[in-house]
Each structure stands twice: as structure tokens, then as C-alpha cells.
Amino acid sequence: MCRTGKKLLLIFLLVTFAVMLLGCGKQIYNESEGKNVSKEASVDEKVDKILSSMSQTEKIGQMMMIGIHGTDVNEDSLFMLHQYHFGGIILFDRNMKNKEQVALLNQHLQEQCEEKIPLFIAVDEEGGSVARMKEVLIPPKSQLAIGETGNPENAYKSAYDISLELKKMGFNVNFAPVADLGSFKDRHFSADPYITAEFLSEAAKGYEDGGMIYCLKHFPGIGKGKTDSHDDSVVVDISRDEILKNDIIPFKKIISERDNEDFMVMISHVTFSKLDKNTPSSISSVIMKDLLRDELNYQGLIITDDMEMGAIAKHYGYRRAAVEAVKAGADIVLMCHEYQHAQEAYEGLLEALENGEISKVQIDNSVRRIIRTKYINFK
After folding, report:
1. Counting Cβ atoms within 10 Å, is residue 102 exposed (0-12), middle (13-18) or buried (19+)?
2. What burial class does residue 245 get, using C-beta atoms within 10 Å of its C-beta: 0-12 exposed, 13-18 middle, 19+ buried?
3. 22 Cβ partners below 8 Å, 6+ apart?
4. DSSP character for 228?
5. How does DSSP assign 188-207, residue by residue?
6. By CB distance 3.0 to 4.6 Å, which of 142, 149, 286, 312 could disulfide with 186?
């Protein structure tokens, strides 16, 4: 073959190979249908198939995360998991003695999964004053200490290291980083919204690279609260404009820049009187639907802060609080301590679904987001 012919053949082969690559870029083979389908479509099909096979009781269970008692599964925790189909567990120091024990506990918890939908297993490992097993694990540096270094890359390294340590023990969700401005103690990067946003962005990358679902908290920000919502109601009386120009900035940056299915947003119990006069954020549709979903265009999972905290528990029954949270836009209701309270919340949600107070469409939308997040991150 002449030199010109060889060149033409080479060009033809290169072009053909390029076309094949472009054509297969996001395609996978669907054996059940015998055809190529987009990867995204395949995920949606599998999620919808799981969703369509679930009972109403199983769907409600997926929308709750609870705390358990004991350092291994026992009769009580097994009853809670199987009777109520809870989709998530959070562990505290009461459950954690050493790394090997925690890893075994989390393994035993995952073995209880029904319908092959894995559990969210979460922990609060922010660093500094909020860290677990301090007698066994060296606590990560606090966010304040990291912020004071002036180097956002330190936030990346801390989040990445935390992720690897937690994954070894079987956790897949960390309720961090804190996005609040000038929060209590050492639980913030800075009081400046733009400095906080830069450190938060690096922390987000660290968690993603470490393979850990993270959680921005406590939307829309608790830094300006004068008291603690663990104890009782907290009211922040600042203008909507001030909230948007300050507290929302760190949340907005991550929501706009990162894949929303890689993280959750935790809603605080603080009442922002200029946004929703007498309603805590965790049961406010103005906060969750109007601001977070519609204005900031957040597409991921919304989880409440612990509904057993004083700001809610002292003013609402657990049944009603759970129902109001979901009606307002929460995907997951968090109940950290007593089994009876978790049962009441579950029963309230199931009753609200059955009597039409909460629509089946809304429940399906939340459960679909939950299953998608689990499928994408745990497959």
C-alpha cells in the first residue's frame, strides 16, 4: 500500500475509534432488555423498580433515622429495625467503645437491611468539641482551629482523613461540616461568610474524595442564635436580606458547585422570625421548600436536626412534629435517643399518609431521593 493510502487508512481508523468512544461514553448494556441505555436512565429504572415494590410502611421507615442503645444489635434494636423498617441509624458514644467493636456493630446493622436497601449509618465527627470516642481516637482538629490556619487545604485534608477513618468502621454518613457562621464553641470555620465558604468547599471535596456522604448543617444557620436549641426555642430576628447576604452564602456555594446527591442538608430548629414568624426551621415550608428547594435549587436530601431537642420536644408532640417536618419538606426525620419517641414519630407519619394529610406523591419523591442517594453512593 502506498504511503498516502496508509495515511488515509490510519485517519479512518482513528475517526472510527473516536466515534465509538463518543457513542459509548455514558452507555451500559441492559441485559434484561437487550439494548444499550444511558447510565442515568438505568439508575432511575432500578430506583423506581425498588420503590414500586415497597409497602407504605417500608417507605415511611426509610424516611427516619434513629439512635439505638447498646454496643451491638440486641432484641430491642432488632425489633425496631424489622418492625419499622428504619432506613438510617446514628451512633453516639453510648454505642462506641473501640474501633473493632464499632466496625462489628455496623456490620451487624447492615446485615439487617430489608429489600437490600442499605442503611445510612451516621455519626457526628466534626472535630474539636464534637467528636466521638475521644478516649480511643485522636479527635480531629476543630473547624475553628482549621479556619485559623488561613489555609483551606487543611479543611480538605481533615475531611479526607476523617472519611477514611470512619469508613474503616462501617460509617457512610458524617454529620459534618458545620456551615454556620461564628457558631457555638469551636464549631465553625469563621464568622466571615466568604472565608467559611472557601473552607467548606475544600471540606466537601475531602469528603467526596474519601467516599463519605457529608452533611451541611444547620440550615439556614444557627450562628446568630443567643441560646442553644438543645435546651429550648431559639429566635433569630434578622432581616431576610441579611440572612441571604451572610448565613446562606456558605450553603449556597456548595449547593451550586457540588453534586447534590453527595451530601445532605440538615435543618436547624432555630426560628427566623423575619422569614417564618413563629415556626422553627425544621417544620417550616418557607425555609425548606421556598428557600432551600426553590430559591437555592437544592436537589439532595433534607434531614432534620434531632427532633428530641428542647426547641421541638418542649412545644410539639413527636407525632405532630414529624408530620409537620415532612409536610414542610423534610425527607428524613432524625430521632436520636428514645425508641418510644421514634415509634410515635413513625406512627404519626404513617397515619398522615393513610389519611391523606401527606400525599403519596410527596412520600414517593422523598423515598426516591433516599434510594437514589444510597444506590449512587453505595453500589
Report:
1. buried
2. exposed
3. none
4. -
5. -S-SSHHHHHHHHHHHHHHH
6. 142
Integer Cα distance of 376 and 379 in angstroms: 6
Q: Which domains does the chain have, with CATH numbers?
A: 56-378 (3.20.20.300)
* DSSP bridge partners of 123: 174
| CA distance readout (Å), 212 to 138, 236, 248, 256, 264 | 19, 32, 23, 19, 11
Q: From the CB of residue 137, how many other CB atoms can be counted at a distance below 10 Å?
A: 18
Show Cβ contacts of residue 299 under 8 Å, excluding neighbours closer than 6 positions.
260, 261
Residue at 347: amino acid letter: E
- Of 134, 149, 245, 244, give the one whose Cα is nearest residue 189: 149
Residue type, 50: I
Q: N- to C-terminal Cα distance for the chain?
A: 50
Tell me whether residue 184 is exposed, middle or buried, using C-beta atoms within 10 angstroms of its C-beta: 0 to 12, 13 to 18, 19 or more: middle
**Do β-strands 213-219 and 235-236 pair in parallel, antiparallel, or remain unpaired?**
unpaired
User: Under a CB-based contact definition with an 8 Å cutoff, are residues 145 and 158 in contact?
Assistant: no
| Predicted TM-score of the model (pTM) | 0.87
pLDDT in tens, 192-232: 999 999 999 999 999 999 999 999 999 998 866 554 555 44
The residues, any chain, with a CB within 8 Å of residue 347's CB and separated by 6 or more, are 319
Backbone angles phi, psi at 134, to 5 degrees: -65, -25
At 215, give phi and psi (nearest 5°): -145, 115
**Dist. CA 118–CA 109, nearest whole Å:** 9
DSSP 232-270: S--EE---HHHHHHTTHHHHHHHHHHS-GGGEEEEEP--
The per-residue pLDDT for range 57-106, each reduced to its tens digit, is: 999 999 999 999 999 999 999 999 999 999 999 999 999 999 999 999 99
Gap between the Cα atoms of 67 and 339, Å rounded: 8
